[in-house]
Amino acid sequence: MKYRIEHTNTFYYENFVDQSMNHVRLKPRTDECQRLLAYQTEINPSSMTKEHIDLWGNHVETFFIPEKHEHLTVKTTSTVSIQKSPLIKMIYFSDEMKEIFHSELFRSHYLAYLNETPFTFLYKEQIQEIVAAVGDPSDPIQFSIDLMAYLHQSIRYDTATTHVNTKAYESWPLRSGVCQDYAHTMIGVLRDKGIPARYVSGYLYVGEDSALIGDAATHAWVEVMVPGIGWVGLDPTNNVEALEQHIRIGTGRDYADVSPLQGVYRGGGQNLTVKVSVQQIDKGL
């Protein structure tokens, strides 16, 4: 599948601001299942960007606007081709996988994705409640699939109940939230059970007559490390595997590592509008 993505973020300031320093993480990745064919960033007021790769392998563009301005627009245009990743529901947790999974080498290598973070923190009683409903975690592949389904059934998608800084332990009692909340809750449970899991930020192509949710802005889902296979994507918001409709921008421990736009400026308050368009332009590679 080939897609064209247009993503526009516009900040409107209450008063003139200046000394604006910003970091942009909106450039899709190139890896074994995804290829970035074209990418462009347009900034108004005009500014040059400087790019680097962060600790998690994400593209980060940095720019500075010294003069006074009343608004800031960052528009990115990407063309990406996707091929299917491994189907996790067809993977058997073999004895060889089990030996790797329980090894100290495996745990130490993925330690960053086993430790809790402020966003993924859940109270022990919350984790116990979820695990009791999901079932035996001894098979991490099946447990991840069942956990995805349980959270999809238990959490109502609602953009009004949580915000960008909501933590997993705060959203779970509400039983509602957005894709970020589904992902943080799922990651928190997986890590508690010794299953390496990471947060994925990207885009979702829903197409026509689709029941998928999450295309209004950047989408979020989870990747689980399967021994001998690699990172496999699961989308608890939609209860589906992250395959050719999921376009990956960045990965990290939680949302804080992949926030699309981060910045500081001197001035007053702001309002943000976001517009995302994902179009399929070719069914082939």
Helix segment count?
7
Query: What's the average pLDDT?
Result: 93
CA-to-CA gap between the ends? 6 Å
H/E topology pattern: EEEEEHHHHEHEHEEEEEHEE
Q: Quick one: biggest sheet?
A: 7 strands, antiparallel
Which structural category do the helix and sheet elements fall into? alpha+beta
Provide the number of structural domains: 2
From the 3D structure, determine the CATH topology of the largest domain. C8orf32 fold
Poorly predicted regions? none
The appropriate CATH architecture of the largest domain is Roll
Global geometry: globular
Q: Percent of residues in beta strands? A: 35-45%
Radius of gyration: 19 Å
Number of strands: 14
What top-tier CATH class of the largest domain fits best? Alpha Beta
What is the share of helical residues?
Answer: 10-25%
Give a concise summary.
By secondary structure, the chain is of the alpha+beta class. The chain is built from seven helices and 14 strands.
Strand-helix topology:
Elements: E1 2-24, E2 34-44, E3 50-53, E4 59-65, E5 69-82, H1 95-101, H2 104-109, H3 124-134, H4 140-154, E6 156-157, H5 168-174, E7 176-177, H6 179-192, E8 197-204, E9 219-226, E10 230-235, E11 240-241, E12 246-252, H7 255-258, E13 261-266, E14 270-282
